[in-house]
Design brief:
The protein is an alpha/beta fold and 228 residues long. It has one domain (4-222): Alpha-Beta Barrel (TIM Barrel). The protein has helices at 4-21, 40-48, 59-68, 87-93, 103-112, 142-149, 170-186, 202-207, 217-220; strands at 30-34, 53-56, 75-78, 96-100, 120-126, 155-162, 193-195, 212-215. The protein has an eight-stranded parallel sheet. Helix 7 (170-186) links the parallel strand 6 (155-162) and strand 7. The model has no long low-confidence stretch (mean pLDDT 95).
Length: 228
């Protein structure tokens, strides 16, 4: 059975190969380990194998892991849907939020970010495939939302996040990720981040400009949601 270290090495090789194929600079794509439903000891093992950035979807689960792993210099990313009553804890305990999709949430994060912490890194989630079941602002609403968020204190708007409709068709993957890149390029803002691509489509995402790929299954195996 492969170890987490083996899996990290394999994913790292995939990222490196895809980056080279896209003629992009070395280290221009970062690995975000999606650790939802995985216990703290698994994250500790991943840290020992070189990972520092961890993405969590469920607030209470994440806060528990943060307490258990407080001795490690981890960088925490919130990547799940955000309810208004969760913004204070997210603002206080995370370094990045990838899943902001409406101004009210951004305003609350800005107001509740502690003054002694650096500005909270923000990505706007865009529903690029128009799926009813998915979070994310519409492409039409993006320009106004991005302009408003970019003015909020205590936040630093970094870029966009997207979860396109899953498909094994490489051309369809490329088209969806290219649409996200085009949306970001259309914004007259100094953005440097595209959070897109997962275990099954990271090569396509990197070809279309991803700077963070969010990888869970390929690192940690299938998830057990019974504990969440």
């Amino acid at each position: 059975m492969s170890t987490i270290a083996d899996n990290i090495s394999h994913v790292g090789s995939r990222i490196q190969t895809a980056t080279q194929a896209a003629h992009r600079p070395v280290n221009s794509v970062q690995l975000l380990a999606v650790s939802k439903t995985k216990p703290a000891e698994t994250l500790r093992e991943a840290y020992a194998a070189g990972l520092r950035d961890f993405g969590e979807n469920y607030l209470q689960e994440a806060l528990g892991k943060q307490l258990e792993l407080a001795d490690l210099p981890l960088i925490w990313h919130f990547i799940g849907p955000i309810q208004s009553n969760k913004t204070r804890a997210i603002a206080e305990h995370f370094d990045w939020v990838h899943s902001v999709d409406r101004l009210k949430i951004a305003q609350r994060l800005s107001e509740q970010r502690p003054a002694e912490l650096p500005p909270l890194n923000i990505c706007i989630q865009v529903n690029v495939s128009g799926e009813v079941s998915k979070s994310g602002c519409t492409p039409d609403d993006l320009p106004a939302l991005a302009a408003a968020i970019s003015t909020l204190p205590r936040l630093k708007l970094r870029g966009l996040m997207a979860i396109p409709e899953p498909t094994d068709d490489r051309a369809e993957q490329d088209a969806a990720f290219a649409a996200v890149q085009k949306l970001q390029a259309s914004l007259d803002l100094p953005l440097d981040t595209l959070s897109m691509g997962m275990s099954h489509d990271l090569e396509s995402a990197i070809a279309q400009g991803a700077t963070w790929v969010r990888i869970g299954t390929a690192l940690f195996g299938a998830r057990d949601y019974s504990q969440s």
